[in-house]
């Protein structure tokens, strides 16, 4: 009977509280399926930005170019006339793939010498690099088979022997930045950054909310000064944690570090500044220390998926891209990986500015919320109590 009574009371507690705990139990899995489902809704990575460098400019090379344009896998963003233009588009990530058609492409096919089409793929993200290689092979092989068959039929060979006799176009593949397609290099820096932001939330998440239970402690001190006094040591420790984590993954797991160390440190400083201020805001608006930790974790957990660290942003739908813009890791994960693997990130300065500006804005809101709630719950001074 006592067991039944305990069970009944607990069930009532799950459903009858002001905010029923059962809503979390049933709602969070559904919420995460909704969020993750939108990120993966396309199912495959299509419309990968590509640049074509056609050095032959013949009917045959234009036909091959059209094959890439017609493919759903690629979105041809430019057709250039120099290698410098092609490399610049790859460098600034306006294109993630380049297709180079060699000079004398058509002539070599007619002479049965054969030509090699070179596909270069940025493999800092393995998701689209693998798709690029597979699709390029399919396009080039189909084009080569059709071209070779027509050539040999022209010299009176039957269609079947002709198809078996000649494949005059070959595919060359060059993988940039992560040539071994290592998942350690691909994922580890993003996982480290995600772990860092969770750690900051757990440590900084209670620093403001706990002040509501002892408002008299800092009587006469401005709210802005209290928030700043809590922010600086927490932020500096978070920067130290970033440096430690980065040193560990490069020293112990062989992840390359090709970027400028000052740039990497500035990026880490901006990221930890943003996440610390975000933690403070959640801490300022929640009712108690437990909520100040639980609520931000619900928000931050989808961050790894939406950040572009694993699934590329261009493969997400509009809702997922908008949600991604609200995640701190979006401005950190892919940029950090570019710095480590390629030594350069075209979004570095932009993302640093966004994170410092966002952190400053969140810090201002935190100060205003804390000041308002502090005044609302401020205890009277001893002099006021005597009066």
Automatic annotation (TrEMBL):
Membrane-spanning segments: 21-40, 186-208, 229-249, 261-285, 297-316, 352-372
GO molecular function, one term: ABC-type transporter activity
Keyword Cytoplasm: no
Membrane topology: Multi-pass membrane protein
Keywords attached to this entry: Cell membrane, Membrane, Transmembrane, Transmembrane helix
Pfam families membership: ABC2_membrane_3
Main location class: membrane
Domain ABC-2 type transporter transmembrane intervals: 24-366
Subcellular locations according to the entry: Cell membrane
Keyword Hydrolase: no
Record's GO cellular component terms: plasma membrane
Superkingdom per UniProt: Bacteria
Cited InterPro entries: ABC-2_transporter_component, ABC2_TM
Name of this chain's protein: ABC-2 type transporter transmembrane domain-containing protein
Organism, scientific name: Lucifera butyrica
């Amino acid at each position: 009977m006592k067991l039944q009574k305990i069970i009944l009371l607990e069930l009532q507690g799950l459903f009858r509280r002001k905010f029923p705990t059962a809503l979390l139990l049933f709602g969070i899995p559904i919420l995460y399926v909704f969020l993750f489902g939108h990120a993966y809704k396309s199912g495959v990575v299509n419309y990968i930005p590509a640049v074509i460098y056609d050095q032959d400019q013949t009917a045959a090379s234009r036909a091959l170019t059209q094959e890439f344009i017609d493919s759903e896998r690629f979105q041809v963003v430019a057709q250039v006339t120099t290698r410098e233009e092609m490399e610049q588009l790859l460098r600034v990530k306006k294109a993630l793939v380049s297709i180079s058609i060699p000079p004398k492409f058509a002539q070599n096919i007619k002479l049965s010498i054969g030509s090699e089409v070179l596909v270069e793929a940025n493999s800092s993200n393995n998701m689209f690099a693998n798709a690029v290689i597979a699709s390029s092979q399919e396009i080039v092989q189909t084009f080569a088979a059709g071209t070779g068959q027509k050539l040999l039929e022209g010299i009176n060979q039957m269609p079947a022997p002709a198809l078996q006799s000649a494949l005059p176009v070959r595919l060359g593949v060059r993988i940039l930045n992560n040539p071994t397609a290592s998942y350690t290099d691909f994922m580890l820096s993003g996982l480290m950054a995600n772990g860092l932001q969770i750690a900051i939330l757990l440590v900084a998440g209670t620093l403001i909310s706990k002040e509501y239970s002892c408002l008299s402690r800092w009587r006469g001190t401005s709210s802005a000064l209290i928030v700043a006094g809590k922010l600086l040591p927490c932020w500096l420790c978070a920067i130290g944690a970033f440096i430690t984590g980065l040193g560990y993954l490069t020293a112990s797991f062989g992840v390359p570090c090709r970027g400028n160390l000052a740039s990497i440190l500035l990026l880490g400083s901006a990221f930890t500044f943003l996440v610390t201020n975000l933690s403070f805001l959640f801490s300022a608006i929640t009712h108690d220390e437990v909520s100040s930790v639980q609520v931000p974790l619900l928000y931050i957990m989808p961050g790894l998926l939406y950040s572009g660290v694993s699934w590329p942003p261009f493969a997400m739908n509009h809702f997922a891209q908008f949600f991604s813009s609200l995640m701190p890791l979006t401005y950190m994960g892919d940029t950090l990986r570019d710095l480590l693997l390629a030594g350069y990130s075209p979004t570095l300065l932009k993302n640093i500015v966004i994170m410092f500006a966002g952190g400053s804005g969140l810090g201002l809101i935190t100060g205003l919320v804390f000041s308002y709630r502090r005044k609302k719950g401020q205890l009277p001074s001893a002099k006021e109590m005597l009066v």
